[in-house]
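Reviewer has doubts. Consider these tokens.
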Amino acid sequence: MCKLRVVARPFIVCEVGSGVTAKFWHDNWIGLGPLIEVIGPLGPRTVGLPIDAVVRDALRGTSWWIASSRSRNPIIVQLKNLLPEAQGLLDCQHDDSFLWKTDLHAPSNRFSAPRTWSALHPQSHTVPWHKAVWFKNHVPKHAFICWVVAWNRLHTRDRLQNWGLSIPAECLLCNAHDDSRAHLFFECQFSGVVWRFFTASTNLNPPAQLMDCLNWLLSPSREKNICLIIRLAFHSCVYAIWRERNQRLHSGVSRSTESILKDIQLIIRARLDPLSRSTAHQPNALSLLGTCEPEITVYKAPEIEVKLDNFNEKTDIYSFGIVFLSLALFWI
């Protein structure tokens, strides 16, 4: 908690009453911040007031102790101009009070967590493409990777080289061009095949550049179902391409575009299936899977036929249980 004092101090304002509690140098009682920060660390020694003095200690009779000084020292002159009228402190009977102030709001004796959060984390400029990443029914891990890609924070090889690392520059997917965000999404021949499979299936023609494509995803089609499907496909492609790139880098295992497309199709179908069931009761509404089926051929796992010959009462039940458990794990 002591480490947070520096963060909390700018929000604390002292409303001086009798002046016996507020610190003259360290509390923000003049509204401009602590005097030790406004005047500087030489202030206490220059004006002759101890650094731990309270506001009441600075009074001499009915005025400030420094009011009679004729010094032209810039610190003393500045302090004279900053100090308020002393008459109000002499007549006040209640103690000093400390209030919480955020931004342009008036000081209050109540702490506001939302206002404090907004003051500590000012709202930045809203990017126009954010709804193409954080839309309803998105896949969280896909959306996160897409957000990182949009801000160009992936550790691609061009960025690693800019940090001074001596590494190869070639793309791990095509080995023909340098590895970069623009190349991976989707100038690379490998990744371009994956992305164009879905756009061609829906008869859409997205822009070639990544950021232009994000803006295009805000309204890729007039049909609501197609918009959701193509956004899910875009997220899945970005996620699958980055995963394939890392898998080749760290484990040396490569997969074909056909294998990646089958995985993406299964992911999209798994995401659309519960959404399609929720709209099944609507009489004239075309379900999401109904929209998806004509354009995207979903990969189906091969059926497995298990023959248990000569299974009778004397068959080892434990062995059968192992077979059944193996089949269950395969389908999961």
Observations:
- The CA atoms of residues 139 and 232 lie 8 Å apart.
- The chain is about 45% helix and 5% strand.
- Strands lie at 12-15, 59-60, 63-64, 97-100.
